[in-house]
Specification:
By secondary structure, this protein is mostly helical. The chain folds into three domains: 44 residues, no CATH class; 79 residues; 203 residues, Intergrase catalytic core (hpI Integrase, Chain A). Helix content is 47%, strand content 6%. The chain contains 16 helices and five strands. It has a three-stranded antiparallel sheet, covered by helices on one side. The protein has a two-stranded antiparallel sheet with strand order 4-5. Strand 2 and strand 3 form a beta hairpin. Helix 2 packs antiparallel against helix 4 and helix 8 packs antiparallel against helix 10. The longest helix has 18 residues. The C terminus is likely disordered.
């Protein structure tokens, strides 16, 4: 059979025309004769579709774009250089491209065609679809010895500017703590998220072994593969004493962890002690916020909240990045720029110590902080 994969066809000799004779015979059912036609004939396919109720999937043609996508899926870049989360997001886009290009030759791939797919594709948003095409074309340029990469001529995708995940206020932090008591899985996850500023996927992967004997919390980020080190049972950096919330948050985390009597491998677990799914963790945590009466707040909003607390403590961009694990200063500025501008434009040194009302943070001197810590 050429070009089409068909199930449940039982061969039974040949027609006088020379075409193979087939019966459509699923297991346990009586066979139904198929027409005297080649298996890739449109009328043969139509009959098969009628009997099976499904449209048969074609086999990709040699040299097709679908074959090229399949080759990229076997590449080192796809298998080893991208995080699991990145592959999860990109795979549906690649499958969509593959399913629509079984007969489209990769030799005919041009910049306008790619731009059209980026604009009209149904899976994910245009910015991510562009990232997928860039990655594949970079691989194909080497694989097929292309002189140029057709995605080089594609301009930056403009997307609607939003504030993204909204950072939690101190009032919302207090309300969540008042609702979810120390000892609940929700509270433990909350304190880990707020203190580390980590993504929820990374928090779900934290184990008790992540808290090292030398007093640091250490883990490898799923998204970037970079190692992160968060102070826990060590002296905090000097800037931390400019913001009393930092020491208070650490105390809350320690109480939450010390309250856990039955310890499993992972710190954040289900009620049955199983590891919490990274994929479903965001929805689970958002639901816990809604139950606490805090709507439209996410786990990622706590990551932003930690970055802002560091801003209020006068931490530098590099110090914030070292804590949160951000790789680029540009990303840190995107997180904190709006609030840092307000801080810089306060009219006096005394006022510069007071953060905006968004978090109602009370500041005190290093000496007072150290004596309270």
């Amino acid at each position: 059979m050429v070009g089409v994969k068909l199930k449940h066809l039982s061969p039974s000799g040949h027609f006088p025309s020379g075409n193979p004779r087939f019966y459509y015979r699923p297991k346990g059912q009586k066979g139904k004769p198929m027409p005297d036609l080649p298996t890739d004939h449109p009328k043969f396919i139509a009959k098969y579709t009628e009997l099976s109720g499904t449209v048969p999937r074609q086999s990709p043609k040699t040299g097709s774009l679908a074959i090229a996508v399949m080759a990229y899926k076997k590449s080192d870049h796809w298998l080893t250089e991208l995080s699991e989360n990145t592959r999860r997001v990109r795979l549906p886009i690649m499958d969509e491209i593959q399913d629509k290009t079984f007969r489209f030759s990769i030799e005919n791939l041009t910049t306008p065609i790619i731009k059209k797919q980026i604009k009209e594709g149904k899976k994910s948003n245009p910015r991510i679809r562009k990232q997928v095409w860039r990655a594949m074309c970079k691989f194909w340029k080497d694989e097929y010895n292309w002189e140029t990469d057709p995605t080089d001529a594609i301009e930056t995708i403009k997307t609607k500017k939003t504030r993204g995940h909204i950072p939690w206020t101190r009032d919302e932090v207090d309300r969540y703590r008042a609702y979810w008591a120390i000892g609940t899985s929700q509270r433990t996850a909350f304190e880990l998220l707020l203190w580390t500023g980590a993504r929820i996927g990374d928090v779900c992967m934290l184990t008790w072994q992540s808290i090292k004997d030398d007093g640091w919390i250490e883990f490898t980020q799923i998204k970037t593969g970079d190692d992160v080190f968060i102070p826990f049972n060590v002296a905090l950096p000097d800037f931390a004493y400019n913001n009393e919330n930092i020491q208070h948050d650490l105390d809350q985390l320690k109480q939450a962890l010390h309250s856990i009597n039955e310890r499993h491998v992972s710190i954040v677990t289900t009620s049955y002690g199983a590891n919490r799914s990274v994929k479903g963790a965001s929805s689970w945590f958002a639901k816990s916020a809604r139950e606490a009466g805090i709507g439209k707040r996410s786990a990622h909003g706590l990551r932003k909240a930690r970055a802002l607390e560091l801003v209020y403590a006068k931490a530098t961009h590099h110090e914030i990045g070292a804590w949160t694990g951000h790789k680029s200063l540009k990303e840190i500025e995107r997180y904190t720029g709006e609030y840092r501008k307000k801080q810089l434009l306060t009219s006096s040194k005394e006022e510069q110590k007071v953060p905006t009302d968004i978090n109602n943070v009370q500041l005190f001197t290093n000496k007072e902080a150290k004596s309270n810590g």
